[in-house]
Specification:
Blueprint lengths: L4 H14 L5 E10 L10 E4 L5 E3 L5 E7 L6 E5 L6 E4 L9 E3 L6 H6 L8 H10 L1 H4 L5 E12 L4 E13 L6 H4 E13 L5 H12 L17 H16 L1 H6 L19 H4 E11 L2 E10 L16 E10 L5 E10 L2 H11 L3 E12 L2 E14 L9 H8 L7 E14 L2 H8 L15 H4 L9 H18 L1
Parallel strand pairs: 1-7
Antiparallel strand pairs: 1-4, 2-3, 2-5, 5-6, 8-9, 8-17, 9-10, 11-12, 12-13, 13-14, 14-15, 15-16, 16-17
Length: 475
């Protein structure tokens, strides 16, 4: 799809309303644990009573661009289990590290004074799900965000895309399929060095699209297939596995889509999950339940077309506010549990964790909005040899098994919430595209003051290496 003039106008108009790019204050620092000096990852950095914010990376570092009109406002740095750091923007010293002290409430004390409240993990989570209609937005909104999409093996990056996003949601009560839209506003980086098994992908593509073709009798030969058809197949495979629409509109969007049919956190959630209260933590002076997620009596499945995505057990953690039962954070994994899925996962991906998800939310005007999403899954890119002699043959032939599959990771940081009906209506008049895989020219002015997720030092080195090799590859 061509990058049309309407999309340019859409991106520029939203940017104009949301951030005055010509009058920004840059603040940056590193956030550390006061006792251990270890970096604190995913700490929240935001302006009080605004929608402007970011999070810290794996090294505890962050960068945030703040409009100068907010220089006298309060900056808050918080992380679950720590006392918050607060100061005005004008007084913040970017040359100094920020140290957070541990802050944990007493579980026994809290439970003793809470005679009328739910006391088990299952009851607390059921109460939180019941309260979603009160805690999630009931009016349309836009989110401005940043996406980092990467694929890598155990050694290096193979593919990287960085994009600016706008997400529209009409409300929690509406179905996501028809009432949630995503637009890719700009592309910052796009490097691709994948070695893809195009015949395997093309076969899957035909299996999905061709209705009257006997694929068993059809011999596929790379020399007889048009390159454009292979490219279409690869792009289709990228979208069905990594497309933003699958994540936002599917069952893995656990909170937003808990009211959809067969939702993982729906009415029968206790058949697939058990929740155990672990302790009480503190987040920015508010108590949080920390609840362990574990398996229940039934396996979990995602019902993905043409991909065996069944036979899992869940584990992880839920963090729920004590006062209003709003879900603050989810750490969620789907682990191979059935015999079929265990064998499949080991054979194809050399891992039992097929889906790893982290979701955090920020509160604004008494409603919870998406703040940060992390999604990781292994993706088959070369069909490889799955015979009983495969390991011996691979060793003899010098085949690198890491090239058979990649770890696909998508990180999305939402940095602004837009509630103005006029801006929302204007945005909806434009053409929307959620295609992150199409190349576009780099817009230097757009990215000059756009809030992004800071790379860790390890990622920065891997990205630099990928960009150099990508340039050589193109030559």
């Amino acid at each position: 799809m061509k990058y049309s003039y309407s999309k340019q106008l859409f991106s520029l108009s939203i940017c104009f309303f949301c951030i005055n790019a010509f009058s920004q204050t840059e603040i940056k620092s590193k956030i550390l644990d006061f006792l251990t000096f270890l970096p604190i990852e995913s700490a929240s950095i935001y302006l009080k009573n605004t929608t402007i914010g970011t999070i810290s990376n794996a090294d505890g570092k962050f960068v945030l661009f703040v409009p100068r009109e907010f220089e006298k406002d309060t900056l808050i740095i918080s992380s679950i289990g720590y006392k918050s750091f607060k100061t005005t923007i004008s007084d913040f010293d970017s040359t100094m590290d920020v140290y957070l002290e541990e802050d944990i409430a007493s579980l026994d004390e809290v439970l003793l004074i809470a005679e009328t409240r739910p006391k088990t993990g299952n009851d607390i989570v059921l109460r939180a799900i019941k309260r979603l209609s009160e805690n999630l937005p009931e009016q349309p909104y836009l989110l401005k965000g940043f996406l980092r999409h990467k694929e890598r093996n155990k050694k290096e990056f193979k593919w990287l895309i960085e994009s600016a996003l706008t997400l529209y949601d009409s409300s929690y009560a509406s179905g996501a399929m028809d009432n949630l839209k995503i637009n890719v506003d700009e592309i910052r980086k796009s490097y691709d060095l994948r070695d893809v098994d195009s015949l395997f992908t093309y076969y899957s593509y035909l299996k999905y699209h061709a209705k009257n073709i006997d694929l068993k009798s059809k011999k596929l030969d790379r020399d007889t297939i048009e390159t454009s058809s292979l490219i279409d197949a690869i792009k289709w495979n990228d979208r069905r596995v990594n497309g933003l629409e699958n994540f936002f509109r599917g069952r893995l969007n656990l909170v937003r889509n808990s009211n959809m049919q067969l939702a993982l956190f729906g009415k029968d959630m206790l058949d697939k999950h058990q929740f155990d209260l672990d302790t009480i933590l503190v987040d920015n002076e508010r108590k949080l339940y920390k609840i362990k997620i574990s398996k229940s009596k039934d396996f979990i499945g995602l019902n993905t077309k043409y991909i065996y995505n069944e036979g899992y057990e869940a584990n992880g953690w839920l963090y729920i506010y004590w006062d209003n039962y709003a879900i603050k954070k989810i750490e969620y994994e789907l682990v191979a549990a059935s015999d079929v899925q265990k064998n499949r996962s080991k054979s194809l991906f050399d891992t039992q964790v097929n889906h790893k998800l982290i979701m955090t939310y920020m509160e604004y005007e008494n409603k919870m909005y998406p703040n940060y999403y992390y999604y990781e899954t292994p993706k088959l890119v070369k069909i490889g040899d799955r015979s009983s002699e495969k390991e011996k043959m691979e060793e003899e032939l010098g085949i690198d098994r890491d090239e058979q599959f990649y770890y696909t990771i998508q990180e999305i940081l939402f940095t602004e919430i837009i509630l103005d009906p006029d801006i929302i209506n204007q945005a909806l008049q434009n053409e929307w595209s959620e295609d992150i895989f199409s190349s576009r020219p780099y817009n230097k002015e757009f990215w000059k003051n756009y809030n992004v997720l800071l790379e860790s030092e390890e990622e920065e080195k891997l990205i630099q290496d990928l960009s150099k090799r990508a340039s050589l590859f193109k030559q």
